[in-house]
Specification:
Order of helices and strands: HEEEEEEEEEE
Number of strands: 10
Shape: elongated
Largest sheet: 5 strands, mixed
Structural class: mainly beta
Number of helices: 1
Oligomer: single chain
Distance between the termini: 95 Å
Strand content: 35-45%
């Protein structure tokens, strides 16, 4: 008799739970569009080099047929040296004409002040693809900035 009562109580409870409707779900905010995947790969860096922390601004200038790349950014600590640009490697030219370039610097060899430090890089890119280049995407650890080629 007790088994029948326990079984009846369990079935009644289960039916009661099934009859409950779940609360209506709140509409989730629209997700940001997915970032397009890069078709390039990073070139090999030397020992001690790494991408800078972030890029604040980037610019391209033409000087007598030579493309000058300029970036203002920040390094994760003081003491970063030999800042440079490292163009990424492509199997085929990017369809939009915007080439990716890593902004790199050499880490300090010893102890350094643990404070985000401004860094500026200005270098000529002599072997750039003149017939296909429309802009450059400067890549860092945390962000990227696109600079378009100035009108001729």
């Amino acid at each position: 008799m007790t088994r029948v009562l326990i079984l009846a109580a369990v079935l009644t409870g289960a039916l009661g739970l099934v009859a409950c409707e779940p609360a209506p779900e709140a509409e989730a905010p629209a997700a940001a569009p997915a970032k397009p995947r890069s078709l390039a790969r990073s070139a090999q860096m030397y020992a001690g080099q790494e991408a800078i922390q972030s890029v604040e601004s980037g610019a391209l200038e033409m000087d007598n047929g030579v493309l000058i790349l300029k970036v203002k950014g920040s390094a994760p600590t003081a003491g970063y040296t030999d800042a440079a640009f490292l163009p990424r490697i492509y199997a085929a030219a990017p369809k939009d004409g915007i080439y990716e370039v890593d902004v790199i610097a050499t880490k300090p060899a010893g102890a350094a002040a643990q404070v985000v430090t401004p860094i500026e890089v200005e270098r000529a890119w002599s072997g750039y693809p003149k017939d296909r280049l429309k802009g450059v995407k400067f890549m860092s650890k945390t962000n990227e900035v696109v600079a378009m080629l100035p009108a001729a």
